[in-house]
Amino acid sequence: MCGIIGYVGPRPAQEVLLNGLERLEYRGYDSVGVALLDGSQIQVAKQMGRIAGLREKLAAAPLAGHSGIGHTRWATHGQPSDQNAHPHTDCSGHIAVVHNGIIENEAALRQELIAGGHHFRSETDTEVIAHLIEEADGESLSDAVRAIRQRLRGSYAIAVLDTRHPDEIVVARNEAPLVIGLGEGERFVASDIPAFLPYTRWVVPLEDGDTASLKRDELVLWNAAGERITRQPYVISWSAEAAERSGYTTFMEKEIHEQPRAWRETMRGRLAIVSPRQWELHLDEEAPKPQEWQRLHQLFLIGCGTAYHAAMVGGRFFEQLARVAPTVDLASEFRYRDPIIGPGDIAIFVSQSGETADTLAAMRLAKAQGATTVAVTNVVGSTLAREADRVFYIQAGPEIAVASTKAYTTQVIALALLALDLGHQNGQLNPERAMALVQALLDLPRLGESLLDQSAQWEPLAAAIANASSAFYLGRGLDWAAALEGALKMKEISYVHAEAYAAGELKHGTLALVEAATPVVALITQPHLVEKSLSNLREVKARGASVLAITSEGLSKAVGEVADAVLVLPDIDPLATPVLAALPLQVLALMAATLRGNDVDKPRNLAKSVTVE
Ligand code: F6R
Fold it and tell me: Do 363 and 489 belong to one domain?
């Protein structure tokens, strides 16, 4: 998983590449490099570490050239090191390549190339691509790249420079994202749109199998069958600043605070109350069709990590509103368990990026077996969005911090809208139940804003967890899914070991780990489960645990009698509470991570978009 940028045009390329890489750093950040073509010579600067280090080095010794490629890496083949940093060159130094993905037949290709006299300088799978291009015959660079694609197995997005073809970059895509940006007399290519958004809003997404030649005034595209094709550019409506931090210390903080606005966007034009007893839901053209819902046989909800937790919450919505019990699964499990799936089934895939390898593979499997596949995603033009039969865009805007926040809550809202739609179509929706939820969903942005206004007061609660070595998160029903997400947020950015349990399960083993002063975060927002949850709190209190309860106003008196501290959410329909509960859970994790001095936006060992299995 890595970030790629390429530029050809009139500007000095070094700055364009460094700017682009800074916006792609969320994709990986163990090493970084650029290659610039100046006249007939390629110059490479690359090193281990972050972009700031390379920027400093290049400030002292700038590279000239008006075309170039750059890369920020998250190691898959070979340790992070200066040698393994991209770009990689061939023996002659004519060719430079950057690559995102994994070449699965790298070992065989490397052996063959070494036997043919090629000299390798890195341990990466990428370097074989540079040597293969060196070997390839072809009138043009694009011929060579298209020829060597036949030899590559695996996932890749690549960008190639060649001294013999100045002012040109050739790119190719297979199961890894790549988009082209069109400017006036200049062309960009990147793994993600924000990389070139300061320069152009016109975008052409590439499909798997595409190869493209980029020149200042020209873009030539070939599809997987080798045919010359055209693809319609589209214009991006969000601004470059929307992808910046807008005054917050970290992207995660900014994205947490953007949530009420993002929720409005998710529901805008889709959900409205039109009279005191009537609401309307208008799903986009690309959403599941009424006849597909009406024919529904089995429903699947699938995702990874936080997106899986959103699917867990969504599962309860479908059960409550449409009386359909979906199978909720992790994409990495679903794809290997030989699932029973076929025509009439609908499989919903939840993914912020729309590029998660396991989610894509699970979607392709379900599609191949005849299910109608639905992408619930944030990224327009992402692979999931393009390949699924139906799409529901969560409209959260770009999410840069590695830890997912606004994507999670907007995914939950999106699934609520889809569940309302199914309940409406299959006749299972109870009108009063539905009206109460619709009202609650539309109230969420206002309530979320007022809740976030109080967030500064939560710091002492976060400090108690930040100082501990491990913490437990408990909840029942919807609160269990919320607890899982809260614990994931805490561990991934604060590195405090946080474990979530269905509250009734603790006494079946894990209670043995609870001892004096162990922090326990208890989610208690579901009125019908309060008594049971309070019994579980008493169990951990009796072992000396220190309990912070996150509860709703109406329940806070009873809960406050047992918990050591209470964080109160505004009263809302219980089905909508997972959205509000996510806010303090995210803020507690952010504060704990900050108190521990961690890099909040780029936690260790993680990357934003998991495009390898
Ligand atoms: C955690 C987090 C991850 C992602 C997961 C799936 O904060 O962000 O668990 O949710 O990697 O990513 P997407 O949603 O892009 O498929």
Answer: no
